[in-house]
Fold this sequence. Notes:
The chain contains 27 helices and ten strands. Helices cover 59% and strands 8% of the residues. It is elongated and about 90 Å long. It starts with a helix and ends in an 8-residue tail after the last helix. The protein is α/β, with parallel strands linked by helices. Helix 2 packs parallel to helix 6, helix 10 runs antiparallel to helix 11 (247-259) and helix 14 (282-299) crosses helix 15. It folds into two domains: 5-367, no CATH class; 383-618, Rossmann fold. The strands form two sheets. Strands 1, 2, 3, 4, 5, 6 and 8 form a seven-stranded mixed sheet that branches.
Amino acid sequence: MEYRKDIDGLRALSVVSVIAFHAMGSVISGGFIGVDVFFVISGYLITSIIIFETINGKFSFISFYERRFRRILPAFFLVSFLSLFVSVFCLSPNQMKDFAQSFAAAGVSASNFLFWHEAGYFDADSSLKPLIHTWSLAVEEQYYLFFPLFFCFLLKKREGIVIAFIISLMVSSFVFSLYIINKDSAANFFLLPSRVWELVSGSLCAWILYRRSLPKSAILSFLGIVMILSSFFIFSEETPFPGVYTSIPVVGVMLVILFSSNDHVVGRTLGVAPLSFIGLISYSAYLWHQPLFVFSRIIGSKDLSVPMIGILVFVTFLLSVLSWKFVETPLRNKNFLSRKVVFLSSFVVIAGMVAIGASGHISHGFMKQRFNDDQASVFMSSNLDDAAERCQYSRDDSVQSINRAPCVYNPDGGVAIAVVGNSHATPISPELGKEVAQRNMSVIQYAIGGCYELTDDAHGICAAWHNKVIDDINHNENIKYVVISYRNDGYVMDSKYISSMNRMVDSFLKRNKVVIYVMQAPVIMHHIDKYIYDNLKYISAPVASRSLESWRDMYIGFDEIKSMLPDKVIVIDPAEYFCSSEECYAIRDKRALYVDDNHISPYAASLVSKQIVNAILSQGGWEPDR
């Protein structure tokens, strides 16, 4: 099989775009598309190997999977276990538990299922997950479990049957992606069925080049490069992927594979030594970059400086060269280890990864082994109520799913309190439910993650959800009190936000509801886990995050919100309980006040809930307990 330097050049573009995206996504907003480019290249190369070996009578499934083991696992094991070692020293129990789960899932090529399952609003973002990039490896390995079986069988049939198989697989996967993209965007992104068409696109290229001698075209290959490179900068995380837009870089890669030539500028450029060498080490570079960036963000600051990014990129490629030369290359040699040793040792290591991952999950990140009781208690106080999170709606929900009934705490209560807002309302609901449980009152949670807008949003879901909630509350005579809580530090000066908030509040007041507006809690400077970890020796003392003055300066709409609300609205400011006259705290009374850097913890929500209860008492809502 002919070696093509231009394909290694494409690999180089792919891995560089992914690394650049994780380093500075604002500059190369579509760099994640490098993974889609990888999928097409992988489909092309693997299918080409299968075709070449089959027609020469050399193909066997055992040899195929042995090559996959030798190619993928050694460097993967190295990076995974080194990441595990570092994790023990710098991850919080929650982070360590998540890492342990991903460690086990990655070992059995199922991490894409895990990250799909974890894709909730309060889940740690990808910049803090050391092994999140293994989802794409899992997709590929799942694909190569079934595709070679069917393809080898069909190779013995007529050409029309092979083409029909490839085209039907592409079309069905593409249509499935379009179908599910608005129903479950996380499933669409992470799972194999909506990614198959990208891999099969590469397989189609391999089949075409096997059956036809295509004339090379400088224009078409150049067009392909333009489609790929433009996608890196035009698209962003807001672009629905995979879907229609994904076809642009995918077709671009196909054009390069089919029509590139060393006689043309595209082929010569992609084949230059620096690019082709980066292509050779691209797998190692892909493995190394994510843990390096994640641990740097966890240990230091989430916002990496330009010099730090430069250092991390240099270290990434240095480690990539070393692992390619001393791990990848030797173990690809069949004379280095026997087939039996390769399979046996691989299964033993994978079993070990599963065992370690399960232990980390059960022990909540090996918490007792790493922290004393006081330290563990503070970490545990930063956990969000699972039931409240499950009850939260999402901006990514379909129009149908937002019509599901809300969660109710103390459903047998008479008078009801509605808690309305975005994700900042979620922690309040269960704690308020506990506060009023003995007073024959229920709490209805109306919270939707990701909706800063109220009734005037471009997404449609936020507006539809808010209109439904307002209607539900106004037509429910049992709801006497409405608690409103939003993160809005970036929206309070927006005229649409103010007008829509006023309309919502006025509609409740006209129905004689008592409205309680909870101001946004201070945003702390780092993730709560960093404050806990950095202050383990002094965990009994309050830990300050920022000055009250800096929060007031940041929350420039503080006075505007108060002034826009009618006099009848009761205003509660969490800063009065989270801050002293000078400082705002991340930890107080040996308990975390946050679950990340802006959502309040159950303990903090209990403080706010007590103030809500006092506000209701002040309105004569019920007699206080004697």
